[in-house]
Write a structure and sequence with these properties.
Largest sheet: 3 strands, antiparallel
CATH class of the largest domain: Mainly Alpha
Oligomer: single chain
CATH topology of the largest domain: Arc Repressor Mutant, subunit A
Order of helices and strands: HHEHHHEEHEEHHHHH
Strand content: 5-15%
Structural class: mainly alpha
Shape: globular
């Protein structure tokens, strides 16, 4: 391959989570898994909609990816499948078997809050076939207007906050944002920075929903007792 270096204007950028470099990159044992993972990040940037995904058939139909994995197409298919399994085992990507109109396939997500919300929706049966070649699956997740929820419970929606919330919508499931707003209200921390900190904490450390619910019950009980005493 002849590559003469990057130009001053790189064009469109591909977003790769910082956690990939801190926790994943140096622990990927095989080059084919690294190639596939970076390829998926790149392809996802070209997708649209709240839930972005690829199909396994998308991977094996890209002759550039196939050639990068093996000289023989049959061998390349096996290599891609194995790389995908390893990426899923390492927690970078998610894959699920799914039945389309003409054949079974695998649907692939980045293992992000939105990816996990999408796989949960598919498991619940909240999806349908669209008949569209470029977006054959529509994932149906109830979605409240988080901007209206913010204005109702937190305060006026400034342009900067609106931009930050639009970015958050691309990163976190709407259920997380709604829950984080509710927690901020209950704790009387009515600002976007606090809500965003909750979301980052959930993304980096995972959610312990039972503990959160207990903490919220304790907080509500403490406020009730304080109000009773104050009267």
């Amino acid at each position: 391959m002849d590559f003469h270096g990057f130009t001053d204007e790189y064009g469109s950028q591909v977003r790769v989570p910082e956690q990939f470099f801190r926790h994943v990159l140096l622990n990927i044992p095989k080059l084919d898994e690294l190639k596939l993972t970076l390829y998926v990040f790149w392809r996802m940037e070209q997708k649209e909609g709240p839930f972005r995904y690829l199909l396994f058939s998308d991977l094996i139909s890209d002759h550039h990816l196939v050639q990068a994995m093996a000289n023989d197409p049959g061998k390349a298919r096996s290599v891609i499948s194995s790389a995908l399994r390893r990426a899923a085992a390492h927690g970078t990507l998610l894959q699920m078997e799914i039945s389309l109109q003409d054949a079974d396939d695998k649907i692939i997500f980045i293992n992000s809050p939105r990816g996990r919300a999408a796989t949960a929706a598919i498991k619940r049966g909240d999806w349908k076939l669209t008949g569209k070649r470029n977006q054959p699956i529509d994932i149906q997740v109830d979605h409240q207007n988080i901007f209206q929820l913010y204005e109702t419970n937190i305060g006026p929606l400034t342009p900067l906050i609106a931009d930050a919330m639009r970015d958050a919508e691309k990163t976190y499931p709407s259920e997380w944002i709604e829950e984080a707003i509710q927690i901020a209200v209950e704790r009387n921390k009515r600002n976007w920075h606090y809500i965003e900190a909750i979301l980052r904490h959930w993304q980096e450390g995972g959610r312990d929903e039972r503990k959160e619910q207990q903490d919220r019950r304790d907080s509500q009980e403490a406020r009730r007792k304080y109000s009773d005493w104050d009267r």
